[in-house]
Amino acid sequence: MRARPPGPRGSPLVGNARRYAEDPFTFMRDCADAYGDVVRFDLGPRETYMLTNPADVQRVLVSEADAYRKADFGDRAIDDLLGDGLLMSEGDTWKQQRQLANPAFNVRRIRALSDTMVDHTEDALAGWDDGEVVDLQLEIARLTVRIIVSAMFGAELSDDRIRAVQNSLEPIGARFEPDPRRFLLPDWIPTRENREFDDAIATLEGVIEDVLAARTGTQRDPAVDPAGEAGTSVHGPGPDGDAELPNDLLSILLRARDRGEQTERDLRDELMTMLLAGHDTTALTLTYTTYLLSEHPEVQRQVQAEIDEVLAATGEPTTGKPTTGADGAGSTPPRPTLETARQLDLTERVIDEAMRLYPPVYALFRQAKRDVEHGGYRVPKDATLLIPQWVVHRSDRWYDDPETFDPDRWLPERRAERPRFAFFPFGGGPRHCIGKQFSLLEAKLILAWVYSRYDLTYEGPELSLRGSLTMHPDHPVPMRVEERS
Predict the structure, then answer these.
(1) Which one, of 227, 445, 417, lies nearest residue 409 by Cα?
(2) For 342-366, what is each residue's pLDDT tens digit?
(3) Other C-beta atoms within 10 Å of 327: how many?
(4) DSSP letters of 45-72?
(5) Model's pTM, two decimal places?
(6) CA 410: distance to chain centroid?
């Protein structure tokens, strides 16, 4: 076994952190192109090993997952934000929290939430005017906040509260953008960035407190209301085996708290994690999907044709704002249903292709619990492993013409030609994203509603990206919405 993988030479103190911070996407791909499957470099003081072979990815995430843990960056910010929620907890704590959360993401329950998803889509987007230019990322993110709070917290947020959530995301995202200066300054120094980050956390904690107060009846805040039947157990038995118990995530956690199994801090951490992770990645997936469809109008027309055909067979009558048909008469497209989503094969392939080219989670980090071997090289205990979806998804080793938007590469016969972990937008193994099925159903229903009514045309600059906890456009996403004729 060779001792040290190849990699770029770094600078004193910060290593390669400056180059990574300037453009993590180009840096990672350049390293993979120049040095191969296993690359070593330093991000500040952290010895980092980047793995880009799907076989190594599968070992880390699945077959040898017990040899790795979530990476510890020695930065208080992630602990202050997410604490011991599902994304960051380890060991028995993670197992307990995952087991508690599982019933809220039961397949039967997720399917039964399709009406809730469409209700919120109609309420949030039916106000679009013909020819209006909207910031699509912002519009969709507000919608997905509504959906996750209703579906998982059993509550409804006012427009003011939703704006407060969205306004908090910018300073939070900025705090997690790669910046070599953070390796040189203690994270407790009250810089403007740190103050804005702390204020944003306080705002989000205030929203969570209002939701808890509304659900427990301790305070009647007119900006937060219980969500009617959104949390009821029409979706299957609750975690306690009682079919009458609500099994939205918050109800499950409140019952666990009453049994002494959850602290107030546990509640806060899980709700914060779900509020942020539960809406952001889906909103980004939809943003990149609509952008790509706008850039490929022939595929957009094919998607619309599929949606029209499937809706005609599976949709339900809707009372939404009518669109104007070619004959000038008003017509209202049918309302998408669970069965609609099940039959949208091309639309699902488009979503997969969008997540390949623009994975919202563009890199995963792990830390070795012991010395391990990858690609014939020793990776020492406590080293950080960087596993970049961005690089693997765009590799010409696994994809023909990888920069080309080609939804048909997800046809079963072509998909079977690639290694399993040549595509892993939701991670994999025991820590795979618990909300995968929720997110995919939500995305298909929103796309079905939107594209049955509108043509979307991107009117912004060439897409520019920035890395944080997730991969965001570095600018608004102006999209012209025009009623279909």
Answers:
(1) 417
(2) 999 999 999 999 999 999 999 999 9
(3) 7
(4) TEEEEEE--HHHHHIIIIITGGGEEE--
(5) 0.92
(6) 20
